[in-house]
Amino acid sequence: MKSNIEGLNDNILLTVKEAAELMNRNERTIRSYLSSGQLKGIKMGREWRVIKPDFKEFIKYIKKRKISTDLDLMESAKEEINILGINALGPLHQGREIILNKLLRGIDVKVLILNIDCEEFKKRENKEELKNNVISGRLKAEYSASVAICRDINNFNNGNYSNPGSLEVRCHNSEPICAAVIVDPNGWGCCSLNKYPDYANTRGLMGNLNLYSKSENPENFTELLNYFNSVWDLADSVDLSIK
What we know:
about 240 residues; alpha+beta; 2 domains; 3-stranded antiparallel β-sheet; 9 helices; about 40% helix; globular
């Protein structure tokens, strides 16, 4: 009887444990992905073997996920996470435990948000909130929530671990054009890009989502990384201490 893995080399087959480590998931989750067909694999007796995904397969995988792509990217980070947004509330609120876990592992996190006191923030309030001549105050509330979440994360991170990563938050005054999560720019490098719609009464996350890798889309990836770094360098630090 012919083997059902004839033609496949051992170096492109992963155990469930190896796949879980590669994709930063637990083994039960990997088996669920295999059973549902989200990951390609074969059965060897009673055990699964995962066909090692290349980057394109990984992109297909995270596009199919029901949870946010930003959180998937944050989960995959091994060295650094850079977060950009008007207030970045989504990644910060939903990704709080991910960030804490990454800091525990020595991974650095940078958060870049819009200065609540600058002219561009007022323009964004008018664009997103103005209805019946009233500004609701949602963006200011989200800004306050984001800073509070970062202070909470920093409070739990500070002094609790022997070699924690650093969490730094800065505020910029530039026109906000996109939200993004950039992971491991000096490593494998991947980013999600969400361009903000440019018309009234729309929220940032209503824009289209794009995914770029350093290897597959080097120009797009480098352009976004350079934009983040240029805005970061001119931004002001936010005090995360709790007084």
